[in-house]
Amino acid sequence: MMNDATTEPMTSWRDVAPFTMSGSTDCAVPLLIAAPHGGRVYGADLAQDMRHFASVSIKLEDRFADLLALNIASRVGAASLIAHVPRAVIDLNRSSDDIDWSMVSGKSPENDVRPGGNRRARSGLGLVPRRLPDTGEIWRGRLPAADLQSRIEMVHRPYHAALAKALGIMRDRWAAVLLLDLHSMPPLRSEGRHPAARFVIGDRFGGSCAPRLAAQALHFLNLHGHDAAHNRPYAGGYILDRHGAPARNVHALQLEICRSLYLDDLMTEPSSGFDDLCDLLTGFCSHLASRVADMAMSASGGRLAAE
C-alpha cells in the first residue's frame, strides 16, 4: 500500500493544509467525493494530550477513507475533497456550535443556553470528540477556549466554505451535482435472520438527496451481492444537512462502509480487500454519476450542461 498509509503523530496538524480540494472546475462527471474523517496528521503535542492515542485515534478515524476517496475519484474523473486534519481535532460533520462546553476551559458564549451542548455533544461526539463508549475520556485535560476557536477558524469554516463553493461551481456547470460523503463504520450486528449490512446509504430520510438517487445507490449494491441499509443506523449528519439541497439540484448522500471489507483483522491497515472495494465503488460512483448526468440533462432542457 501507499507509504503515507499510517497515522502520523509527529507532524503537527497546524503545519499542513487542513484539506485538499481537487477537480471542482474540470471534473469529468458531476460528482464530488469527500472524506471528512480521513485525516491522520496529529502532532506530538496532540498525541500527548490524548489518554490512549494509538487506539483512540484509529477508532475516531474513518480509517483510510481518504485513500479510498482519492483512488475512486481518480478512476471516475470526480472532484474530491480530502481532510488532512483528524476528527480528534475537530469533527467536520458537526455544526460549529455542537460543543460540550464542560470540556472547554474559559468562558463559553453568553448566548449558549445549553452549557452541556446538545444531545450529540453530551454523548461525547460533538464538534471536538470528548469520549468513546468503550474507552472513556479521550483527553487528559480541558481544551482552552482560544484553541477551540482557532480550530473552527482554521479548519471547520474553510472546509465548509470550500465545499459549498465547489458544489455551486459544479451545479452551475452541470445543472446538477452529487456530493458523496464517504465514511467507514465498525461491523454492524446482524438482526435476526438478516445478515448485517456492509454499507449504509444516508440521505437524512429524503432531505438531502432526490429519492431516486438513493434508490439507485441501494439497487447497485444489492445487485452486486452486498447487503445495504438505508438511513439506519446512519442517516448522515451536519454535512448533508448543510450542503444537500435537492430543490436546487445539489444532492448529497452519505456512504458508510464496513471496515472489515478493506482493513485487516485489527482494523488498522489495508487488507487484500482494499483493491476489490475500490473496483466496486468505482462502478458504484460511475453509476450514480451517470444518473446525475441524466438529471442534469433534464434540468438543462436536454442540453449537456458541461458543454
Description:
- With 307 residues, this protein is of the alpha/beta class.
- It has one domain (13-94, 149-299): Zn-dependent exopeptidases (Aminopeptidase), CATH 3.40.630.
- The protein has 8 helices and 11 strands.
- The chain has helices spanning 44-49, 53-60, 65-76, 119-122, 145-174, 211-223, 238-243, 273-299, and strands at residues 19-22, 31-35, 79-83, 104-105, 131-132, 136-137, 143-144, 177-185, 199-202, 228-230, 250-258.
- Strands 1-3-2-8-11-9-10 form a 7-stranded mixed sheet, sandwiched between helices.
- Helix 3 crosses helix 8 and helix 6 (211-223) packs antiparallel against helix 8.
- Mean pLDDT is 91; it is low at 1-5.
Name the features.
307 residues, alpha/beta, Aminopeptidase, 11 strands, 15% strand, disordered N terminus
What is the fold's blueprint, element by element?
Layout: E1 19-22, E2 31-35, H1 44-49, H2 53-60, H3 65-76, E3 79-83, E4 104-105, H4 119-122, E5 131-132, E6 136-137, E7 143-144, H5 145-174, E8 177-185, E9 199-202, H6 211-223, E10 228-230, H7 238-243, E11 250-258, H8 273-299
